Amino acid sequence: MNDELFRLTINDARAALRKREISAVELTRACLERISATEPKLNAFLTVAESEALTQAQAADQRLAGTQPAPALCGIPLGIKDIFCVRGMRTTCASRILENFVPPFDATVIVRLREAGAVFLGKLNMDEFAMGSSTENSAFGPTRNPYDLARVPGGSSGGSAAAVAADECLASLGTDTGGSIRQPAALCGIVGVKPTYSRVSRYGIVAFASSLDQVGPLTKTVRDGAIMMHALAGVDPRDSTCSARPVPDYESALNGELRNLRVGVPKEFFVEGMQPAVDDAVRATLKHLEAAGATAREISLPHSQYAVATYYLIATAEASANLARYDGIRYGFRAEAEDLNELYHRTRALGFGPEVKRRIMLGTFALSSGYYDAYYLKAQRVRTLIRKDFEAAFNTCDVIVTPTSPTTAFRLGEKTQDPLQMYLSDIFTISVNLAGLPALSMPCGYDSDGLPIGLQIIGPAFGEETILRAADALERSGSIARRRPSAV
Amino acid sequence: MAISDAYEAVIGLEVHTQLLTRSKIFCGCANEFGAAPNHNVCPVCMGMPGVLPVFNRRVLELTIRVGLATHSQISERSIFARKNYFYPDLPKGYQISQYERPLCVGGYIELPTGNGAPRRIQLARIHLEEDAGKNIHRPTASLVDFNRSGTPLLEIVSEPELRSAEEATAYLRELRSILRYLEVSDGNMEEGSFRCDANVSVRPCGATELGAKTEIKNLNSFKFVEKAIKHEIERQTAVLKAGGKIMQETHLWDPERGETRPMRSKEYAHDYRYFPEPDLPELYVPPELVEQIRAQAPEVPAARRARYARDLSLSAYEIDVLTQEREVGDYFEAMVAAGIETKAAANWTMTEVLRASNESTETFSNAVPPPAQTAALLKLVAQNEISLNAAKTAFAAMCKSGQDAATTVKALGLAQVSDEATISQVCDQVLSAEADKVAQFHAGREKLFGFFVGQVVKAMKGNANPKVVNEVLKRKLAMAGRPSPSDLPSSGA
Ligand SMILES: [Zn+2]
To answer: B284 and chain A: CB distance < 8 Å anywhere?
Structure first.
């Protein structure tokens, strides 16, 4: 075994653990040491749970030594976006208002991962309440991109992406409301999967926009994404919106096959202002797909031009209600105040950061009496049109391929003064959430600065197997030479 | 209208009733009254980050029961909505309710009107929502108890078709009665499981447009509902007569002062920003479920009233008293089924049974003996085994002891004595002890007859058959005046 255990993929670590070539404690220690070494540069972790992780690792080693077959992720060290409630582990959502909140319960996916034998290294940085595309909106300082410390890792799951890219953990959990898994995965050169809405339980994930939020993995490889998906997906009696469809064995779908794959390329997604390197890399990948036996055709998603506007009405409307519970009454931060109104005002004024406040106000406005029809209701209608665009497109293709983000990682501070520019970095990912579809981002090249470029593969509802199969085949074909981050 | 010939009142009621389910509407916590503060809570009903609601299907069944009993249309597809406002007892900062597409629409309730046709009051809607917690104010702090948070609530909204405080109260009583018949709510206003807000406006008689209304809150008894509405109608009429204008506002009923007063506008000026609840799928009600519940639906008060009027010779008043509570009517019917004559069963239920239950702090079925035992007791009266008064004494004892009729009558020595020899002996003792009065009687003070009867009954501890006492005394006094061989005492003396 190489001595840099932290560089292992889940797939390789799993094999080594089962063959007892390495122990879960060794692997966990390697990751914890890697965290100690890289965190001063990255700031990807908000909480490192060293002793808990080692306890879990010891338990995993016992299971691995036992006669029963070890569960799927036994002894695999993971990082958890700080939006997931983990019993007894501080869960801040990168907000002052939850700075000292310790949940008394586990999110359903955390329960599943515990059952699968995973080890939790700690909680990962993010944009406050998952609102942002750069992780600069964290109340606890930005995370930096492992490829260039002056640049952002993307967001909102920026800590989750940077930690995996920097080998601080083997994989991580993220959430994706408008691109929050895929965009940081693209900017950090890793794989990020956003499943079909309802495929994974949302119970215990601090809600941002309930009709859009979805849990997914950030991994080093597509195969690892498939392994994680199998552990995460499935019905949950605690989430009434969660699908009861049986969960396929995603890993067995990875047959390396690209022949006869019908690839749709939406003409609306190759926009003015897109970074030429991104355009080039995506087009080169399309060529490669065709060479491997896929057929590419241009398709149209005519309503996608309204996706960003639609998203910022629906997501903020839902957020304005979801974030009302942070009132200083039952848990979390409470400001000193003379009376109830002052308590509310001061707690929320001091507890929330500017982007969160901006979105709460936007959402409150969109739902206000007299504006509801013009904003919220109209946005819902457009959302239906966007969903229908995709339905029509999938009549003629199996997957849709686009860039994940119009640019590679941008510099810290570059877009913080211009929320609209920041919002546009999710222009290719947002419509997928509005349509509730599965999509992933995988590396498809690097720009002249050596920054990773992401390719987005979108599937029809519950088409996770299809997109994972295509991405895995592409990954295995070796057409994209992966480069390690140079800054860590 | 008694208030003014020139104005009429327009009243609509919004009733909130808690449903008698074992668990809360969106989590598994117990739905019970009186637990220690914050005992029945979990992350869901405390509004912790990331929690999600899961709808309790039992709530749906109970609501459909109410919908069917009120002739409402049961929506095959309804949706939940978020009603947004801040208050410490509201853990999520929004209440899950229904706004567009409620579960029940367009029903009605019929109010009895003596012997005339019932008065029909239309319902706008019946919808589901979750209750909030409870704020408790102490001199040094305000506390919140979340036990009530997530208790299933039905909101039953009438159209503004009620025309007086009395009619509003009658509507409320009928609605409460229906809910109790259906066993969906205990209808307890004092404990807050049945609450009422009233929308009151006044307009010139003959006008078709509605005047500006006030919403009156904090009405936690039938008496307050009636008083508050009366007060509000009078207040508004006076304002209009003086040429003033009614402000659209929310008033609180102040029971101490017996008046309504406006809340500060800050306390109620809400834009609730309703929008569909994204955490809950559309609520689908399969038509088979509705039919299944319809087939098992218990009788409602209106149907029972109609049945009594058709089958039994009872007055409208008697029917009204007997049918207000399902268990009272059940009791009455059980006595009739046990062979007690209708009128006697009705009288006994309306007087003795209701008195016993009203005087007791127990539930009805614990406060009174089983109807079979009460019937057994009344049979003893019919068979002249005991007097009616003795039966009342025995009944009161049975309510407390729980013993059966025969045992109680025996234990208290209440069996009625009709044996002429025994009575004759006592009569002789009384007449000889009261020789003076017997002389006065024969001298013409015939009123003393009653005195003699009373003395005999008293000597026999009330258990003498009064008819026999009368006959024996008459004979003996006549004999004392005009002796005759056939009237000689049969024994003793
Ligand atoms: Zn609960």
So the answer is: no
